[in-house]
Amino acid sequence: MGEDVGVVRRRRRRRKGNQSALLLVGVGFLAAAVALSWGRDFAATHATAIVVVAVAALLLAAAAAVLSVVARRRQAARQAQRDRNIAVTDAMTGPQFEQYVARLLRRDGLRRVHVSGGPGDLGADITAYTADGRRVVVQCKRYAGSVGDPHVQKFNGTAWHIHKADVALLVTTGRLTVKAKQLAQRCRIVLVDRAALATWATDGLPPAVLSTSTKPPRSAAARSG
């Protein structure tokens, strides 16, 4: 008895499918061989052109990198020029003022300047290191009014024990009360009010403690809080 017609047809379709697949594979190998041969011939006959294109691409990449560096330096120079005007701080938010003070620190030679201000900073808005390795802890107060002794007392309670400061710096755009100055002197906290900040920004004269080479000892008052 002969095979079922449907079975025969399916077998023929499978055979044709296999033949088509083999044909496609063969065509693919042939195309790859032709492309490889053409590529070798092209490379051999156009070697100079390929080298020229490669060199041009490298030069363009180098030029783009140089232009990017120049643009960043120009932007930094413009920012530094703006930072010399203390009036720019009047429109700043607290975080913007922290970045402003950080730029002054970097400009004047401090290293590893890190802005950490925000919730949970425990008074350390900025940390940095002097050229002789002392750790500087900075608290920034972008105030229009007065900074009093409670602010100094709170900063004193964290700057030394928690943040391990060698230099504690409180920088404000506002005014410092007499009591704040008296307490800061006892606690060895360096205060920078608006007038001192203007001198620092405009004339490039940071607080003297940032440029001294002798590591100051911490006072008993500073350690005890």
From TrEMBL:
Gene3D superfamilies listed in its UniProt record: 3.40.1350.10
Record SUPFAM superfamilies: Restriction endonuclease-like
Keyword set includes Transmembrane: yes
Transmembrane annotation, as ranges: 21-38, 50-71
Source domain of life: Bacteria
One record GO biological process: DNA restriction-modification system
Keyword annotations: Membrane, Transmembrane, Transmembrane helix
Keyword Membrane: yes
Recorded GO MF terms: DNA binding; restriction endodeoxyribonuclease activity
InterPro entries noted in UniProt: Restrct_endonuc-II-like (IPR011335), Restrct_endonuc_IV_Mrr (IPR007560), tRNA_endonuc-like_dom_sf (IPR011856), Type_IV_Methyl-Rstrct_Enzyme (IPR052906)
Domain Restriction endonuclease type IV Mrr: 90-200
Designated name of the protein: Restriction endonuclease type IV Mrr domain-containing protein
Organism: Phytohabitans flavus
